[in-house]
Design brief:
Blueprint: H1 3-38, H2 44-60, H3 62-91, H4 108-156, H5 162-194, E1 202-205, H6 206-224, E2 227-232, E3 238-241, H7 243-259, E4 266-273, E5 279-285
Parallel strand pairs: 2-4
Antiparallel strand pairs: 1-3, 4-5
């Protein structure tokens, strides 16, 4: 809020003050005119002196009233000035700054300040999600991109049979599919953090999610010679969420555990109510680390 708005408010108050003085002069003149008509023999000069005295007294109060008007203008615009100053500081990079509303009167100005604070909170949250998404994307995408690059360089390092080129291309397509899944998962996670998918949340039995993931990954576990063990309470607790996303989340953990488990090892999926309260879901493997 610039100084001009305060000056404009002060000018409006001065206009009101001017109208008040003009109305006082008009009233004094009208009263004196009516009095003169009722008493035509009184001195006109004396009547005008009374008018001048009354108007003059009002004019003497004008500086005082102008000072009061300036103080009112400052008081009226102070909350708006605070909103503008805080917005400028936030725009300058001080993202944690917020408008102080505890001392504001409970009126439209406070509602405006709280609305602006909420908007900045949402903006800061979006920035954090963007930073987290960028960091997660860089971390998750580095491995498959490096794998495709290495595979391409090795494939082009010398002439090879067509079958080897085909195998290399199939491997690269597999890595591209993996990249696509990673990007989709990161986008879904970002939307979840933003609250965009909360409307689709529903109560879901946790054991049902665990059983579905076991059925999906049981063939892969058997192919690797790894035991896939489920330790889930039945019926067990329910959680609020989107079932397919929970299955995908747990599936990613199980897939990673299977990749790092040696032959003859075991991957355990455990779910249930924790002794200290809350719901627990864990995936453990017998691999290194």
């Amino acid at each position: 809020m610039s100084f001009k708005f305060r000056s404009r408010t002060f000018l409006y108050l001065l206009v009101l003050l001017g109208l008040f003085v003009a109305s006082q002069a008009t009233i004094y003149t009208a009263v004196e005119y009516a009095h003169r008509r009722a008493n035509p023999y009184e001195s006109f000069r004396e009547g005008m002196e009374e008018v001048v005295q009354g108007v003059g007294l009002t004019l003497l109060l004008v500086p005082l009233l102008a000072g009061v008007a300036w103080g009112l203008a400052r008081r009226i615009t102070r909350p708006l000035q605070a909103v503008a100053d805080t917005a400028k500081r936030i725009r300058g990079g001080r993202w944690s700054e917020r408008i102080e509303t505890t001392t504001m009167p409970d009126d439209e100005t406070k509602v405006l300040a709280e609305t602006v604070n909420a908007a900045f909170d949402g903006y800061a949250g979006a920035l954090r999600r963007l930073e987290r998404f960028s960091g997660d994307a860089a971390h998750q995408l580095r491995t498959p991109i490096a794998a495709m690059r290495n595979l391409g360089e090795v494939s082009l390092s010398r002439a090879r049979p067509a079958a080897e080129y085909r195998e290399a291309l199939e491997t690269m397509l597999g890595e591209l599919d993996r990249l696509t899944r990673i990007v989709e998962q990161l986008l879904q996670l970002s939307r979840l953090e933003a609250g965009a998918l909360k409307a689709r949340f529903a109560p879901i039995p946790l054991w049902s999610v665990v059983e579905q993931v076991k059925q999906i990954y049981q063939p892969a576990a058997e192919a690797r010679g790894v035991a896939l063990v489920v330790e889930a309470e039945t019926p067990g607790p329910t959680v609020a969420g989107i079932e397919e996303l929970l299955i995908e989340l747990l599936g990613n953990l199980v897939d990673n555990a299977l990749r790092h488990s040696p032959d003859g090892g075991a991957v355990r999926i455990q779910s249930g109510v924790r002794p200290e309260g809350g719901v627990g879901l864990a995936v453990t493997d017998s691999g290194p680390g």
